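Hi all, posting the design record for the shared folder.

TITLE: backbone redesign
STEP: 1 of 1
STRUCTURE INPUT:
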């Protein structure tokens, strides 16, 4: 199955694909820091940060990088 056919099937059953995708990403940014999600999915950091803000997430003070020191 490719993205186009999946999108068509979702529309046929009444699920708007864009809303579902945004909802899924918002759920992800509530579970992990926005920069991590952005990097994993290929999103811009600002987009992921906006989504975490819209979802009332608590990762706003996350500092990316090596924290093993």
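Okay, here is what came back for every position:
SEQUENCE:
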């Amino acid at each position: 199955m490719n993205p186009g056919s999946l999108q068509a099937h979702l529309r046929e059953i009444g699920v708007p694909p864009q809303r579902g995708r945004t909802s899924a990403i918002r759920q992800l940014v509530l579970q992990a820091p926005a920069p991590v999600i952005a990097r994993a999915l290929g999103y811009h950091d600002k987009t992921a940060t906006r989504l975490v803000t819209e979802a009332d997430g608590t990762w706003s003070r996350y500092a990316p990088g090596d924290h093993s020191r």
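COMMENT: The mean pLDDT is 79.
Let me know if anyone wants the other runs.
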